[in-house]
Amino acid sequence: MDQLELFDIANPCIGVCQSNNRGYCLGCLRSRDERFNWHLKPDNERAHILRLLVQRRLRLKQRQQKDEATTVAPVTLDLF
Asked: Which domain of life is it from (predicted)?
């Protein structure tokens, strides 16, 4: 049995509205298809998209942490 939704599912848009090279919004991480007509999508589809966004944020955070760990800080030499 599906859980009864008491509140409308909020739009995850944060107003950045720029796409990366794979077509995902840099602000909310939704694809173009996921963004298009959000307000007309049924609640179960919007809830599914929100679950996908959680997974995308986790992967993005892991990728950023990996990049930070492999980035070598520049070395400055005191010559004087």
From this structure: Bacteria
CA–CA dist 53, 57 (Å, integer):
6
Q: Compute the distance between CA of residue 60 and CA of residue 29 in angstroms, rounded to an integer.
A: 10
Is 49 buried (19+), middle (13-18) or exposed (0-12) by CB count in 10 A? buried
Which letter does DSSP use for residue 9 in this model?
P
Residue pLDDT, tens place only, 3-61: 555 668 889 999 999 999 999 999 999 999 999 999 999 999 999 999 999 999 999 99
DSSP state of 77: -
Cα 28 to Cα 14: distance, rounded to the nearest angstrom: 6
CA angle 54, 2, 33 (to 5 degrees): 45
User: Would you say 16 and 26 are in contact if contact means Cβ atoms under 8 Å apart?
Assistant: yes
What are the boundaries of each domain within the chain?
Answer: 14-67
